[in-house]
UniProtKB/TrEMBL annotation:
SUPFAM superfamilies per UniProt: Ferritin-like
InterPro entries: DUF455, Ferritin-like_SF, UCP012318
Pfam families named among the record's database cross-references: DUF455
Protein's recorded name: Uncharacterized conserved protein, contains ferritin-like DUF455 domain
Source organism: Rhizorhabdus histidinilytica
Region (Disordered): 48-69
Stored PANTHER family: 3-OXOACYL-[ACYL-CARRIER-PROTEIN] SYNTHASE-LIKE PROTEIN, SI:CH73-314G15.3
Length: 275
């Protein structure tokens, strides 16, 4: 009997080697799209994805400063941090499907399997830029804050959607424009182009999180904005800090009304294309 979609998701999570994970994610998305994988959720997801010993994982407080991309060393550090985010994002997408897909209609799986494949493509693009600088993913330390958020919300699809795509991934909408500007100022147009591609895709990823969060709220007949604010206060460690990329957040469905309930009180203004 063919492995069901949960078993395929588990196989992606159990693959520790980054390039092999990228290939597994893209193969899974292709096979699902072509109808080669049956619906089913018989396989449990792991508490933690498989990892190699590279990169070494440090607490966020011990992470070295990256600088502003003015030097090749600073650009390598910036690209490496982004590569790690995209690497973990592959696991986040497939864990979301394998852990919670049975709570949703098939189009949820369709959408998030495609997201996982896009995250894999993002990682591959950034890894290529690292290689152009004579570096590779794993050369520098990273932190595991993204997966810690996944572990915190492993019990509840509403909490997972509230925190991972709608807070953590949404932060990328705020910071990416300044990253693009830094790479452009350093004369690295190829890296800037990769960042622009990722920024466009991430709006759709955050919008998927918002859309399915609303789906659950509507099904339960609860207020979406208030429910999100409650979930963020309960499950997100830290403040949702402005300034925000207003236009990108609006495109993704994160309205000012929703943000006003969770943003740090120092400044609730939305500003486009800043970080």
């Amino acid at each position: 009997m063919l492995p069901d979609i949960s078993a395929v998701c588990r196989a992606v999570l159990d693959e520790p080697e980054p390039i092999a994970k990228v290939k597994a994610a893209r193969r899974a998305a292709r096979d699902w799209r072509l109808g080669r994988i049956p619906w089913g959720f018989a396989t449990a997801m792991p508490d933690c994805p498989a990892r190699t010993d590279r990169p070494p994982l440090l607490p966020p407080s011990r992470m070295p400063k990256r600088g502003r991309a003015g030097s090749p060393r600073a650009r390598i550090a910036m690209l490496h941090a982004l590569a790690h985010i995209e690497y973990v994002a592959i696991d986040l997408a497939f864990d979301l499907v394998g852990r919670f897909g049975g709570h949703f209609p098939q189009r949820f799986v369709d959408e998030w399997i495609a997201v996982g494949a896009e995250e894999a493509m993002h990682f591959a693009l950034i890894e290529r830029r690292l290689k152009a600088y004579g570096a590779r993913y794993g050369d520098l330390p990273a932190h595991d804050g993204l997966w810690e958020a996944a572990a915190e919300t492993a019990h509840d699809p509403l909490a997972r959607l509230a925190v991972v795509p709608m807070v953590l991934e949404a932060r990328g909408l705020d910071v990416t424009p300044s990253l693009i500007s830094r790479f452009e100022a350093a004369g690295d147009e190829r890296s800037a182009s990769v960042m622009r591609r990722i920024a466009d895709d991430e709006v759709d990823h955050v919008a998927a999180g918002v859309g399915w969060f609303r789906f659950l709220c509507d099904a339960a007949r609860i207020d979406c904005a208030r429910s999100w604010q409650s979930m963020v206060r309960l499950h997100f460690r830290g403040a949702v800090k402005p300034p925000f990329n207003d236009s990108a957040r609006d495109r993704a469905g994160l309205t000012k009304e929703m943000m006003a309930g969770v943003a740090a009180p120092c400044d609730l203004s939305h500003k486009p294309s800043v970080a």
